## 1
Amino acid sequence: MALIAFSLIAAIVVLAAMFVIAARNPVHSVLWLILTFFSAAGLLVLIGAEFLAMLLVVVYVGAVAVLFLFVVMMLDVDFVELKQGTLRYWPFALLVGVILLAELVLVSVAGGALPTGNMDASPGAPTNAEAIGRVMYTDYLLLFQLSGIVLLIAMVGAIVLTLRHRPHIKRQNIAKQTGRRRGDAVELKDPTPGQGI
Amino acid sequence: MSNAIESLGSLWGPLLVLGQIGLFTLVLLLSIAFLLLFDRKVWAGVMMRKGPNVVGPFGLFQSFADFGKFLLKEIVIPAGANKAVFLLAPILTCTLAFVTWAAIPVAPGTETGTSWVIANLNVGVLYLFAISSLGVYGIIMGGWASNSKYPFLGALRSAAQMVSYEVSIGFIIVTVILLAGSMNLTTIVNNQDGGIQNWHVFSFQYFPLIVVMVPMFVIFFISALAETNRPPFDLPEAESELVAGYQVEYGSTPYLLFMLGEYLNIVLMCAMMTILFLGGWHGPIALGPELTANLPPLLLSLSGLAWFMGKVLFCFFLFALVKAIVPRYRYDQLMRLGWKIFLPTSLAAVIIVAGYVTFVGGLS
């Protein structure tokens, strides 16, 4: 049963990943990418790493891919023009592909340390989330906090790069808007007929 | 009965799950049909109208009449639309909305610690959060594939809106996870046993935390409104500016699927509020073990189910009431509320609750 599920999901992952490259429309590419992420999460569930699977869906599918889609949809590019001349890059693409494949083969043949068969997704703890938490907040605490700081710096950097204070533009004063009361805006008049106010 | 089970052998498990899914879906769809009517009746009541009252007694069968109408209409696909994505979007929305319900426990099981749920996941909360965060794709895809300006603008708005409010919803969920010490929804509900004061919204078992959890419940409710594109945050389909937002080009069955998915998500948010904050299937007064021991377990399960449905209905009533009485937000106000007010507040709440759990104790 698990083998059938694995074969099915793995096939979907590979096929979807191929369509990411093959699709002519970039938006379709991103949609296939989303399917790839989602199916990869399914593979993680199969080996019992449900926490990682959910995180993969929340972070990559729920946030990162949305931003991808957001950007790609707003691009106004001529896809036919874009595809022209891609043939020139084939040798380079082939080189990168061969190197990647060679590395994978090297690792799987010579590595030997890769666990195969029954992997324990949650060693020493009842659930996957606890197992990860125990390792992350004890043995690798410093690295964990370091990565947090790196992310913080990246965030501050992004804000600094994009924040511009442009003068001479009208801004909304929210406090003034929410502080507005009925008496400031409405005035009751009692006009006499034929005369107006 | 037991002979029949044995003769089925290994097929019994999958068949049982299929049966559960079928029953759950049926109950859910029927509930949605009447909740839709309830929504319209509340809305009408606030405006001193009568609401739908022609089909059946009190208009009870209005939703079924609408259903037939949607199914029988012709599907119109705009000329420049991306056909596959255009049709995929509503199907995706509706499917995802159904799939989330697999992890929702609705009633206590016959043994302690169990519950009536299709999939009792250890990461149930995360599952709900993950799948409901995918809901935005249906809207973006629908808006983009329509190849029209209003739907596209609506889709962009809703993408930004849903991603923004997801963040604060995530932090609020973290506070509840910290209190319950588990991501399993059944465990979270059972952590609120023992009467109304122990519900997470009041948190009397972690005494001073009521100051944090009541605001968290309110923020969760408002974020849920924004997450499901309900008024006052229905900017993706603001009819006065975008005609109908991402659904402009949709009609008949695809529109029905969009609407069904939307209402399923609203009821899901009500169920999440019930489970995370309002004690799930636990009644407001705790029955001691000496009282419950003599009652048949099935009766206890059914009374739990009734409490659960009652609470979901209460939350849905709040949703309907808000739709009727609150005017629509402006887009910049929406973003300001999400990022500048809700995010810092919920982040501070996470820190306070985590500190409480660590130093005062709370994790069992």
## 2
Amino acid sequence: MSTESLLDGWKPTAPGDVTPREESKMEGSPVRIEGVRAAAAPGTASVRNKVELKDVSFYYGDFKALDDITLDVPENQVTALIGPSGCGKSTVLRLINRMHEEIGHTRVEGQVLLDGRDIHDRDVDVVELRSRVGEIFQKPNPFPKSIYDNIAYGPRLMGVRKKDELDDIVERSLVQAALWKEVKNKLGNSAMDLSGGQQQRLCIARTLAVQPEVILMDEPCSALDPVATQQIEDTIEVLKEDYTIIIVTHNMQQAARISQFTGFMLVQETGEPGRLVEYGATSKIFTMPDREETENYITGRFG
Amino acid sequence: MDSRQQQAAAGAGTGGSVPRGRGPSAPKGHRRQYRSQKIAHAVLALFALVSVGPVVAIIAYLFYKGGSAMSWEFLTAMPSKGMKAGGIFPAIVGTFWLILGTVIFAVPVGTLAAIYLTEYARQGRLTRIIRLAIANMAGVPSIVYGLFGLGLFVLLMGLGTSILSGSLTLGILVLPVVITAAEEALTAVPQSFRQASLALGATRWQTIRKVVLPNSISGIITGTVLAVGRAAGETAAIMFTVAAFFLPALPDSPFSQAMALPYHLYTVSTQVPGMPEEMKWGTALVLLLLVLSFTLSAALVRLRFRRKKRW
């Protein structure tokens, strides 16, 4: 089976963003083809790539943190990034909403495409980008405001002022994040009074309120207990119907449970940049990975 | 529960807050450790008391010497008989206007400067130089500010000896206090709040206005009030820029001269022969109480916000 025929399954559905030049590049990258096969595997013509990283390298000052990452993130699926600490998983996330720019002294090479458009282009408005690509952080970080004001924060930024319109958004977002039942009678209470798991679902609702297309999650459950983790995972399961989700996790069972695609990242030697070792359908990565490093990590031999 | 924990619990039960002797089972070395700890406690407590001693002594002494001058008339009447009788009302009013002018000038400038330094400027050589300059400003003697104000505001800018000149001079004088306090308050706002806001598509300015400032306002207010206390007590800086020995009427515009408490105290103590003792001390007492009230309200504001704060 040639690479070409594999590509055929999904390429036509991409909205004209795959140029012949890029196509030939794909063939040159074995890791990339893993991703392609995975994306094609569900067999539906509707799978298209929402986010694409093409030969992305990233530097903090002089330190190269990521090397040549190429990764396709299919739309309305959950894509997990796994790997040992410090391998650059979170850095990959930050490149997708350009939060790395808040650190300063960073440099990006290669392309990060959202719907085929390079988001690092100078004329891309970072504020607009971030309203399309939301992020859930490792530690729940609600604002010290009321539950209502937390959710309404984003819409208000965008100029929504009408009370009933905001009410609608708040309710809808909280329902989507599976928090509505617990908080509907205390929307005026401080978000700080919620439990950790509730706070994290509040943060999810807050992100949903700005109606993003992609949601980045950076180990969203690492500070939560198993029950709260379960609730978040259930929420993610529902959200993927409407959103493209990229989740970084330390927890391999979690990646296996919730994601359709998994990328394994690794720093081979200390001081080297992080690389994407293998990327493909979660079922394949966890049952018959192509690379030995992936298998070692998955079977718990290191990391 | 081993025997040692039991003893500790028993000790707590009998109300002993300091760990006492550990009983016969405790090794000798431990007993010596606890003894040296007790000595350290005692010495540290002593020095803490010594450092508050002078403040208490000064307040007590001022009440003792000047308390008898305190009366409604003293606070609300114009001075008469060459300051030797009547009250200090115009000095209180003058100080009030100076404080107001100082706040109007120093708080916006200081806060905006602090916002720039913490939120916008790339931390590098420029910010280091600015911070160094601010630190140095705090160390400049106030008489130098007075002369600077005289040269720049009174003479060069032609504002004359006026409340405006005095407020601007005091404003510059307290700027380091305001900036430093505001910077501290801003950096105390967790980075995760800023990240959350930016990730929701807020601009930097929106993030500052809606998240950073509301959560640092208590620190900024505290710094402001402390600065006000400093300005209220300042003498040298207003000597050439605003203060008058005696004015028959209250100031009626920012361009008026004014009397002020610290300068009034200075002149009646040094320039008025035969000034009644208790009036001098009474003036000092009013000034001190004014400054203390500012400091106290700063502490209260801080306390109130801290109780509400949960991060």
## 3
Amino acid sequence: MSEIMTKNMARNVFYGGSIFFILIFGALTVHSHIYARTKAVDESQLTPSVAEGKHIWERNACIDCHTILGEGAYFAPELGNVMKRWGVQDDPESAFETLKGWMESMPTGIEGRRQMPRFDLTDEEFRALSDFLLWTGTINTQNWPPNDAG
Amino acid sequence: MRYHSQRIAYAYFLVAMALFAVQVIFGLIMGWIYVSPNFLSELLPFNIARMLHTNSLVVWLLLGFFGATYYILPEEAEREIHSPMLAYIQLGIFVLGTLGVVVTYLFDLFHGHWLLGKEGREFLEQPKWVKVGIAVAAVIFMYNVSMTALKGRRTAVTNVLLMGLWGLVLLWLFAFYNPANLVLDKQYWWWVIHLWVEGVWELIMAAILAFLMLKLTGVDREVVEKWLYVIVATALFSGILGTGHHYYWIGLPAYWQWIGSIFSSFEIVPFFAMMSFAFVMVWKGRRDHPNKAALVWSLGCTVLAFFGAGVWGFLHTLHGVNYYTHGTQITAAHGHLAFYGAYVCLVLALVTYCMPLMKNRDPYNQVLNMASFWLMSSGMVFMTVTLTFAGTVQTHLQRVEGGFFMDVQDGLALFYWMRFGSGVAVVLGALLFIYAVLFPRREVVTAGPVQAHKDGHLEAAE
């Protein structure tokens, strides 16, 4: 082996190749970044309420039970398409009512059933969270998930 | 141990072992919540336990890497660490941040506060002040080890190790970028998550393994270092564009499906290379190192990383497969064995190697230590298998048939019971490991009769 490749050759291949792949990744990142802001979603619909909803989603650590676009904790249902599953994706008022009703009935306390904690949100916060989930439902996810079950 | 400052590693490993115990115990609690969902549901909701489980894992692995660096660097650079004081300050920041995180999560302190409250993106839930603390500690660390390396002997091991650590620190900065657009958020979130574990962490892993092989097998440095460069080359060539396998369904362009599938398929190569490399070195090596347990952990690391990260990763990396398996228990199965094989075993291998040297005694309690390897590893492998079956059934019922999540989960109870059982084995193994490296003062197995040869070496008498 030492005849065909020396340590210095291996090192140079490592440096050169890595720089090459980093450059390609960088170029694709720029394109994907622009795509994420223009093609994947309609950023004009990204209202302050949606942004606030995302923070509510984060500070309550929802992702450590649920998944969103398939990423999260697998303990509780996927929420990227929850408004579609509930049949309220096109009806923000019903989306708000349904989400609020659902979350206020938690925890169910039913024996042998996974428990969702109680989150004391204000109406404004329920509205923001619901707007965030509605907005997430509009992301072009290349047709994922395969069905409404998520 | 030839350099005084290598002892810094001891303090790092002690904290790491404490967090390791915390991590597996929370894992076991979660495993119990899966089979008995009302358990602690008011006091410790699942999401809180899960944050503690994943965050403590990452922090103890980081402390393991830092400790490993403080141990390896003086020997490689042939000089003392630039400033032991800074190293202890760095550890202090980590301990303070970790305690802050635990208290903040458990009692949900400063809820919603921009600086003090938890942030809640997966794995990056730490409050911002802790993120800043990690960044500050990381900069102190990089200054300290870079100064040491620059003034000392340069070897491929330190070179690759420091490159991995610099990459780790720089990528951490993306933890501070949290745009309102969820697609952008996820795009750069993976720069911390994927480019850590499937990128720069592999550099750290390969460098630590190379060091262990040099010490344990006595193979020529020139050979080890050449292979080190070959391995890290295959890791980055596949891993950088392999990031695409996380970009399939989060709102990014469709071309990632092909780029991600093709390049991430090659992510198995560095793990196969590390496994082959380690076994060949052990076969070829002429040194009969007394610390057999360190050898078991090193070889176990490469094998389980090959299966957990390599094979189980490939299992669901092609976009046609991932369309159905994305975000199911298949991911959980892969995550567990990959982290265990690649990084847990790695740090435990180094701890096993270093502890007797730092305590200045023979590698006692090899039997207990090796027993903990087999107990923990078989528990983790069994857990991976049960979760793989659970994930396969879940994928079919939920993603193909369209059954609802909770109905499908109820049908998986048997697998979750078996997973809990394997979790018990892992926890017992982990506690046994901690006991074996820290506490016993003598070997549990008494040495049999020996015969001394003229050249001074001893051999077991038949």
## 4
Amino acid sequence: MTVADQVSSVPRTARRLQVRVVGRQRWSDADVQQRTGAGARARPWAIAVIPIALGGLLIAFGYAAGRAHAPNAEAQALYWAGQGLIWLPSIATLLSTRTDNATRIAVITAVAGAQALLTWAYSPDQFRFTDEFQHIRTLSDILRTHHLFTPNSFLPVSPAFPGLEIVTAALMQTTGLPLFTAGVIVDSVTHVLLPLFVFLGFRELTANARTSSVAALLYLTAPHLGYLEVLFIYSTPALLYYAIALRTTVRVARSRSPMWTLILPFVPMTLSHHLTTLAGLVMLIAMVVVLALAGRGRQARRLGLMTAGIAAGVIAWILILAPETFAYLAAPATAAVQSLLHPGAGAATTAVTTVGAAPRWETLTAVVAALLLLGASTLGAVITWWSHAGRVSSLVALLGLVYPAVLVGRTVIPGGPTLAARVLTYAMLFIAYPAAVALTTLWDQRRRPFRRRLAWAITGVLAVGGIVTGLPPWYERIPGVYHVAGFESGIDERAINVGHWAASWRPGARVVCGVSVCDTIGGYSRATISTAGSQIFYAGTERSLNSAIADQVLNYVETDVRWTRQVPLSGSYWTSDTANHTHPLPAAVLTRVNRDPYADLVYDDGLIRVYNTTLVWSN
Amino acid sequence: MEQLTRSLVNRRTRAELFRLIAAVLVGLGVVVALLARAPGVVVLPGGLLLILWLPGWIWTQAVVPAADAPLARVGYAVSTSVGLTMVLGVLLDALPAGLTRADWAGGEAVLLFAGFVAAGLRRPAADRASPSVRPAIRSVVANAAALTVVAALIAGAVLISISSQRRLNASQHFTALTIAPDNRHPLVTIDNHEGTGVAYRLTATIGHTVVFSVPVDVRSGQTVPVRLSVPSPRRGEGLLVVDLDRAGHRAPYRRVWLHARLGEWR
């Protein structure tokens, strides 16, 4: 059969594309179908992107309303209407059997693009999240010294994983772009490509574009994928290579790529982020087990050897450049294991804030979404197993059953919700696949509109569940209101200004400061943030105040009049604060610092004051 | 070189060869522009191409099989460029000059050339490229129109976000006063974020004696440094108080101070 014959044999809907095949090669049916989306409704793919962009615009209006201090309900309505426009049409488009491949790819990348746009729109003039300042510090060190691995007291493991900072520095130095713009470009580009490679990876596995695209969309509903993993933090570019590693692993398992190609995604991944690299190694180990169970022992042994080699390289990198990484990762892991071994020792806690609990509907949606995802992933694993989709595919679908373990950890471990959200960034890759199988099976194109609506609604709830359990938290989902010790909401112009001013301090100057100002000072200057300095604010007398300052060898002390007006969001005004503040700070605390005869007042903006306290202990 | 030439000519179609050579030439042009410190209008798109596209695209020609999906190849081109830049950064770190603009330019040029050689030598003949399709004009026009709408919506979101954030920043209305120690000439800066120009008076006193006083007009967004000229502290002790006064405010609008240390304002 000639190429023309093959093309003419595809359904009439696909021929509307007026496909013209050039060359004299012979193609399999799968080739032609894959390229043309035969059997699918061929429509201009860009039309499917319009509601997503409109959703982005509505949310930008919501953010603007928040900044203009419009009624919260108005901003919230715009926000959720926008999210609805981004997700609901996209879900229907991807679940439909009539959608062609180009539209599927356009939709999943556009949803990721919308997430990147909204992350930028949330803070469109500069980085404001705590972790971003830690990486600004590493990047600033690279730009200043022109070399890597300068120690960073703000996040000691950061310089050993400089992938994000290297690319941003390269972009800044070659284009002349400012730090914020270059960083946003790197983050956005890598995030937009992420679902593309998830889609391609699952399509390698399943040869089914519909299931793969739904799996890619479900992956984007993981709690941190919509915001945190688009920020200027080291895991953002690493995740792209995690997804590429998925595709490469599947191709290697299918003997479509040589074994050595597995090394390629692990190089930039190792240069970028420790945890993502470890997750990538876990993925390889899981695939070794899958191949062994699928009766492909020789391939499993070869992949096992390659995995061991890659692991050796990763461990060597960490041992040589960042040995503190082990301790950094071990602390939460040990706490998690301890709490699992001794369940009564601590209960799972949600983030404690002084602004009250999350709205009831959000809590309820999060629970329902978790249960729906559990049901869908379990059902999908069963369907894949019974449908004889292939041993490897079926076993990979079984990996989705890791989700119950995540839910147990979320419930049992102290700080479980935070940890579970973090783990889902990686585990969701495998949970999404069986869940997508279940949802695409549920969606019945020909009959039973109820099943279609159900599949659409379930996916919608999963998307909302991801938003309400992710960041920003509900109390600062709309920007514009200042919160003492908030994440982005605590970083206002005053905090940014004092951070830039502190850039002139001598390296290593020790400072105690409020949570938000510590972020900007830590990011913009080369100062060392005291993690025990909060004790000075509990000093009852001038003598004990000076004694505490001397003990901590503090060069600077920052105070903020707003501490006497607001309680801090997390209960703590300062880093490693030992108290849980339920009332604003007494004014006497600030007065005591202000009247210290040895402290120079060197910065005053009406609310924020910075004192040079070197004289207290240097004389 | 002979093997490379033979390989390139034999294994590549003319179009592939043209694209490869064009990519290398464009890349080298950007490198030259960077080294020559060309204006931003050249360097901005050139730098973006050099860091995010060209090296990855050329290396993708060498590594990624031709039968792979076209979109996968686009994705690989960008991700490979980003990954190669990371590796290049680690290598440049070993050089004495480190990560500078010139070193990036040189390093990327080497990457481009090495990729060109690898693409010529390694990749087998393109015996199974993806089927090439040409969509209908109607579809192209519809996509272009839809993308125009999308671009307009995104532009609207961008403009609204930037303008609302600017308004929020401007609504804070504050001025920061700072002082940096120096024996006879402490440096004071006035940083105006009031959203409007303000006429201030800066006054320095030691004890109850005014030792320095000047009017200072500060425009909105402006930072004005003022070098004070004050006497050294007597007997090694004293307190230098600097007030920023604003019309309409009875108390000092902002105040900073320095103690004398070892006979100096430091």
